Amino acid sequence: MSDKNEIFGNYMEMNPGQEHMTLQFRAALMNIDELWESGALSASFLSNFWGKFFPSKDQEGRTEMKDAVRYIAGELIGNAVKFSYEPDFLIRIALCLSDEELHFYVTNSVRNEDAGDFKNFIRKILDNDPDELYIEQMEKNASEESDESRMGFLTMILDYGAEPAWEFKTDEDMGIQTVTTMLRLSVVRNTRS
Amino acid sequence: MQVTGEKGEYRVAYDAATGTISCEGTLDLRGKEGYRPIAELFEKVTDEAPETITLDIRQLEFLNSSGITTIGSGLIIKARKKGASKMAVSCSKKYTWQERSIRGLSKLMPGMELKFDD
To answer: How is chain A split into domains, by residue range?
Structure first.
């Protein structure tokens, strides 16, 4: 049903032949606080795991990588937990390593009414200068009481040089809309001693 | 004046004598609601308006985007708008996120002083 899929940004399908790790969990098992805590634990776990792919001699590269994975995985899982609405749909986070990039894939269910807002926000991110959006959004947060800070993607782009893309589709089995957020992070591995 | 996490995962404390807000531990709270007590502490500090507000994050291991937003909009922009205090931030290179995240935050208040420990 590819005609129902909607892609934003430079989305690449996950290549299961690459080195990867996937975590899946059902939102229904926990309350929001527990989900939040387990999301943070998952991000820490993934960060430690992927840090091992860096030679121990390259401590600096390893620390940078671990910190970046912890931040990005934490933000993406946090978003997935926040926007998931179908308790039985498995939230999935997968990290995939290629030579020079780490690819994050996070899939969650999304309400139709939230999807519209989200797509507008995605278009805004893709069509505008993230530096300007960062300042604009911070100023907005300082003067308005809103629940959404909308700073997660902007900080991932600006502070970590990460490139986001999205795929919206319909899960035929469950008849619900899902979104997969993909994030590409450049990695530099100093494999020489 | 201080705020601590239920499980001791973080501590944010204000020392009025030096105008210093120290943040320690891991700040990974959920959204604006999670950061409300910290935002309230920031608001009291900007109201008190010491000559210089120093934000010391050298012992802050981790900060999520909601925390970055709380510091940016709830402290730096508030202090800039009030116009009564200068701002300085003490950072550490030990935690790599600090150098990355502080660049954006420093744009919110021209003239903000950044200090880095190795």
So the answer is: 2-186
Domain range annotation of chain B: 2-112
Cβ–Cβ below 8 Å for B65 and A152 = yes
Residue of B nearest to A34 (CA): B30
d(CA A125, CA A61): 29
Determine, for residues B62 and A70 on separate chains, whether the beta-carbon distance falls below 8 Å: yes
Q: Which of B40, B46, B65, B81 to mutate to test the interface with A (most CBs of A within 10 A)?
A: B65
The architecture (CATH level 2) of B2-112 comes to: 2-Layer Sandwich (3.30)
What is this structure's pTM? Answer: 0.93
CB nearest B100 (choices: A74, A75, A160) = A160
C-alpha span between A55 and B48 (Å, rounded):
49
C-beta atoms of B108 and A135 within 8 A: yes
Cβ(B34)–Cβ(B67) below 8 Å: no
Q: How far apart are CA A168 and CA A183, in angstroms?
A: 15
Q: Indicate whether this complex's ipTM tops 0.85.
A: yes
Choose which CATH entry (3.40.430.10, 3.30.565.10, 3.40.50.720, 3.40.50.300) describes domain A2-186.
Answer: 3.30.565.10
CB pairs under 8 A between A and B: 71
Q: How far apart are CA A30 and CA A141, in angstroms?
A: 30
pLDDT digits (tens, 9 = 90+) for A58-112: 888 889 899 999 999 999 999 998 888 888 888 999 999 887 899 999 999 998 8
Work out the end-to-end distance of chain B between its first and last CA atoms, rounded to an integer number of angstroms: 28
Average pLDDT over residues B5-33: 95
Cα–Cα dist B102/B115, whole Å? 11
The verdict on A5 touching B (C-beta cutoff 8 Å) is: no
**Inter-chain contact A71–B28, Cβ cutoff 8 Å?**
no
Q: Which residues contact A81 (CB under 8 A, 6 or more apart)?
A: A27, A32, A35, A36, A39, A91, A108
